[in-house]
Amino acid sequence: MNKYIIGIILILGVLSCRKNIDIISTDENEFPTQKYVFASLKGKVVTTRDMPVEGASVVIGEYTQKTDFNGVFYFNNIKANIEGSSVSVYMNGFEDAIKIFYPQLSSTSYIKIIIKPIRKTSIINFDDKDKIVGDEVNKIQISGDEFKKDGDKYKGTIIMNWNYVSSLASPEEQYGDPVGYSKRFKLYGLDSYGSLSINITDELGKSVKLGGNNTIELRLGLTPIISQTEEKLTLWKFDIKKNKWMETGVAILIEENGIQYYYAEVIESGIYNFAKRFPVEKTEIKIEAQNTFLPFTKAFLSTKSSYKLSLSANDKGMIHCFIPSNKKSKIELNLDNESYIFDVEAKQQNTITIEKDYKNLNFTGGFFNCDDEIISNGYVTIFTDKDSLFYFFDENGNVSIPVIIKESENYVQWTATDIDTKLNTGVHRTKLNEVEVFDADEVYICQEPFALMQYGDESYLMELTNNDKDIFSLTFEKGKAFYEINSYPFKGVGEYNINNCNCTPTIKNSKGERLYIYSGLEHRIYIEEYNKNGMIVGGLEAKVRTQFSGTDTTNIKIYYSVYNE
């Protein structure tokens, strides 16, 4: 048989064996094949003081979004690399942040990203002799005076933004995850000695590149905790497109004036990591209670080395990450103010079970503005002991979500936000019913005072018309329907029995008929919130009839939200 035909058959045989492999290691001139799934990611961008950052650009591959006034962003059903996708955050005045999330098909992941203000900047001229930034032990220096911008020679002011991240820093302060590809595209975990980043721009923030024989000299000082040193250390550069650190060179150990540091030369701006490597394996960790899975649970994974990961389960209670295959790893969870520590192994799946029961609550509701229009661009935030998590409305202004709370709780705290108007309802503390299903029914997000009356099959949106004296003295009306409570002795949050006061709320329907509360059946006035901003949220639920005497009754509900600033 012709040797060329034999070669073709062998090649086709190899390719057919490879077609179902997620990551394919090929020769050193090819990058491993990447596998993508469609998944969702929601998250929040905050400062180091946990303040939300509005207007930050969040980028995942070809997708870009801006954070809202609460620092929130949401990518719905996007194409993402199953082996880890880079989430980059850019904001004027802040250092760039890069994190990794591991998507799972048709799931939603959650991530919180902390960004730090830029403080380490030097302004120099292109032909200055000394172009150095840094501190006493960590330095970055540019040699040469040739630069390019947009492909042309550049002669002007150079802005050098730089940053140093210690090997002792928390995972939230690190760039990406400590996982990288060697030059032969084998995946390793990185035992980092620290990282340096350098970004060169003009005065307007536009990228400036090195030209000619210019180089960037990196000098990383050693922290006292590093007792064993290598004469040579691998240098890694973070690649946003490939979502991993890539082996790019070697750093050499040097000692001057009693100070040890690693030295390396590079030819472009970027983020560089000085690290030893060790083998890792892709691992799945399932987080569950005795009776249910635990979505969006935060976790912290660590080894005896500097390999650390800050993790969060997705909406299916699953965590995906890379675990050192030759080191012992521990994962720590914090639930209900208690810490749980478990050993995890480098294998396909670990299952972690918390010896507690949790309630799986179904939260539903529809959301409207004061003009009785659907709000589709908004979200409801649920506050639990695990975290404050948000769930976006669908195109019809509805939300139906599972919420996990601890078994001992009999209430849920939540707030609803309208992104377009930047309004929210304030925090509601709502008791659960016996079947542990909470239906928020129709929720109105309004700046002006309002009340919603539901009488049988009729519904009226009413406005506050007289509230000069006391926030608890309310008069609502719109058209012929109105509701008035002007002498009830309200004393704040709680429930009030109408029979306990010498008053009767005045209620009329759209025909102008007086509605009498039927005192023989269950009825109540309740106040859910009365906060410092002068907002009262509450309502009335009762049976009413159109005649003072008689047995025919109709359900009535009145919900109101009053601002008295």
Q: Can you summarize the main beta sheet?
A: 8 strands, antiparallel, barrel
Beta-strand content bin: over 45%
Strand order of the largest sheet: 36-37-38-39-41-42-44-45
- Helix segment tally: 1
Q: What's the CATH class of the largest domain, please?
A: Mainly Beta
Helix content: under 10%
The protein's oligomeric status is single chain
Unreliably modeled segments: 1-29
Number of structural domains: 5
Structural class: mainly beta
CATH topology of the largest domain: Chondroitinase Ac, Chain A, domain 3
* Number of DSSP-assigned strands: 45
- Summarize model confidence as the mean pLDDT: 81
Distance between the termini: 91 Å
Shape: elongated
The CATH architecture category of the largest domain equals Sandwich
Q: What gyration radius follows from the Cα positions, in whole Å? A: 30 Å
Please tell me about this protein's structure.
- This protein is mainly β and 565 residues long.
- The protein has 5 domains: 22-115, Immunoglobulins (Immunoglobulin-like, Sandwich); 121-278, Chondroitinase Ac, Chain A, domain 3 (Sandwich); 283-354, Sandwich (Immunoglobulin-like), CATH 2.60.40.10; 358-444, Aromatic compound dioxygenase (Protocatechuate 3,4-Dioxygenase, subunit A, Sandwich); 450-563, no CATH class.
- Helices cover 3% and strands 54% of the residues.
- A hairpin with a 4-residue loop joins strand 32 and strand 33.
- The chain is elongated and about 100 Å long.
- The chain starts with a helix and ends with a strand.
